Model the fold of this input.
Amino acid sequence: MVRGMDLPALVVLGLWSLFAIAVLLRLGRRGAETFDARLTPRDRRLLGATALYLGAPAAVLGSQLLGLAALRLAGGRLGGFETWVYWAELTPAEPLSPTRGAIVAAVPSLALVTLVASLGAWTWWRPGRGAANLLRLELARIVGVLALGVHPMISVLARRGDHHVLRESLNALRPPAGEAALLGYACVAALAAFLWRRGHRLRALATPLHDAAREATARLAADPGDADAARLLGAARLACDHPGAIAAIEQAASLAPDDPRVELLHGQALLRGGEPESASAHLRRAGQLFEAQEAGDASLLFEIELALTAARIALGDAEGAVLTAEAARATDPGDPRGLLLLVDALVAMGRTNEARGQLERARGGAEGAFRREIERRLKALASRR
Done:
């Protein structure tokens, strides 16, 4: 007879059911809007909830069904099943041989790890809209945390579940094969965490920038002479650190050679690519084109001045960087980036006392991340004494 679940597990299952039903209702109301070409913060929250309360439990249950299939193929019978929604355990009715026990225990974890890798590869090679990509990657992230972190820790510490059975079965075959298998699994988990942290281009596919790039690409396919679409494509690719950013910006420059916005993008791309001298030339020209306009947008001038300040710091022209940073602050005194670049320029000139004074004056009215950055820089300046 199959052993049932105890009361605590049923309570957890009931609470999860309430959240899952709430997510389903929200999807029913906003499903089409959520998966359109405009990924909003509200969409991101709903897609995250979908992955957490619907996708991940379904993945865990599916992996256990594969484990049950492996158990049946190994000639065993199900003796008990217990689930805590995000973790589950199958218990054979009779003990299996070490070889069969290891195979059955390994199937659910291998299934989840394969799912994580498949979702990442699917998103990378066949990206869709930002919302669809976000759902895939969020599901991969949650399932990865469960399969590579939560499940093995619970199983080993509680001495029950798939990873515990796998270790004991392998140790029965050849000690210490079980410990070696868990160590290898930990290495896979560390590699997955490293790749996720380095995967900024993959995560960029789940942002509004990706949708903007898709829309601009479609516009260029319909009209290769659409200069605005080429500029938007270049801006989106640059923000995503896409290797095709320079090509898109150069296409935009050929279509609109006197657009200061394109020159700004070109300078920013070259600066990011480690070519501050070429970047400075494009940024100076962007400023000249801006000044030639009858009515320019002050926010564009501010971005030009910021980028030119960074280029001059990279070139070692600290004095010029200070002048440009001060101009940027005059253009938009409320944007903290102007202050931070001015501090960098002052430090590059050796005027650390002035830099410290700038930070201390700004600290009083600063909040959140800006205040934390000011505190960090003040500590760094204090350590230079």
